Amino acid sequence: MSKSVSLSYFYFKAKIGKLFANIISGFVRNKEKRHRLREKLDPLNPQRCVNYLAQHYTAVSPIAESLLASDRTYVWVCWLQGEEQAPQMIRNCLQSVRYYKPEGSEVILITAENYRHYADLPEHIVSKWKAGIITNTHFSDLIRIFLLARHGGYWVDATCLLTSPFPPYFTDSPLFLFRSHGEFAYTLIQSCLIHCEKNHYVMRMWCAAMAAYWEREDRLINYFTLHLMFKALLQKDKHFADEYAKIPAISDEPMHVLLKPMVQGTAYSEELMQRAKESSFMQKLSYKFPAEILNDQSSLAYVLSQPLVVSACENK
User: Most buried residue, 68, 104, 107, 205, by most Cβ within 10 Å?
Assistant: First the structure.
């Protein structure tokens, strides 16, 4: 059986298995038990995905070290459509990054027009992105790890609103990623904020594994494939795991003080904003809301979608 046929058959079986899991679990009335059963039966549940990735894509060599001589420190943000096309909330977040960037660093906005100047992405990844096989969201996933492997520095998602400078535990670690919590704890890591030194082994291995994945695959096995590949490498590569063990275990939970109230249409208040500032140096936001929330001028989502004076977000 050819490679393409075997992969198609694998995904076909997974699709049928997921349908079976949904039907069987539908007979369970208790919501929590129903979801647990559905995940257990799903042939592509997170742990099975990790096992699949570990089996097929972790026996790789890290991508080559960068020979760039520059010692400049970069803060990377990505909005592929460009700043002028970004929603106001995204521009607010970008403004906050420029305001709080580490002294002496340079903020680079990565777009569809300039990414090739900074990231050495394999051509098969670029081709699949241009063909629509790789989404913009996942392309951003890949850009961040290839940028950090080559240049190092800081990755900040375009939906991250900074309210104070980066803390020492973030800037002083050779590699730092936050730990995921709550319903997405199974992803282990949060990729919206990353700091790493140029040529870090973990980042170079992560790039190599994702490049190997897209050389063979034509679809994401899971929305969080980037994170699950990280877990697969932890499972199979001792050096990778040893480097990860050096990272302080800090939860991303304090970064989500504003997100849920925004989604729920909660009214803006100075008390809520102050609680967010005291919880973390960054808040993860979203720009996607129903019209009824964004049109409500009292809502938190509406206020944060207006032009923002970033200095007003400072921790007092």
Answer: 205
Q: What is the DSSP string of 150-178?
A: HH-EEEE-TTEEESSPPPHHHHSSSEEEE
DSSP bridge partners of 251: 179
Per residue in 208-229, pLDDT (tens digit) is: 999 999 999 999 999 999 999 9
Tokens 């034509």 sit at which residue?
A: 218
Residues 260 and 247 in one domain: no
Q: Kindly report the pTM of this predicted structure.
A: 0.88
In a domain, 112, yes or no: yes
Q: Are residues 107 and 182 in the same domain?
A: yes
3-class DSSP state for residue 248?
coil
pLDDT digits (tens, 9 = 90+) for 9-32: 566 666 666 665 566 656 556 666
> Do 234 and 184 reside in the same domain of the chain?
yes
In whole angstroms, give the CA distance from residue 3 to residue 217.
Answer: 10
In the chain, which ranges are E strands? 74-78, 106-110, 153-156, 160-162, 175-179, 189-196, 282-284
Same domain, 264 and 224: no
Is 64 inside any structural domain?
Answer: no
Q: Is the pLDDT of residue 129 over 80?
A: yes
Are 294 and 302 in contact by the 8 Å Cβ rule? The answer is yes
- Helix axis angle for 238-245 and 201-216, nearest 10°, is 130
The residues near 222 (Cβ < 8 Å, ≥ 6 apart) are 44, 46, 49, 228
By residue range, what is the domain housing residue 238? Answer: 74-253
Q: Pseudo-torsion of CA 132, 138, 141, 147, nearest 10°?
A: 0
Q: Region 170-191: what's the mean pLDDT?
A: 95
Whether residue 111 is found in the same domain as residue 143: yes
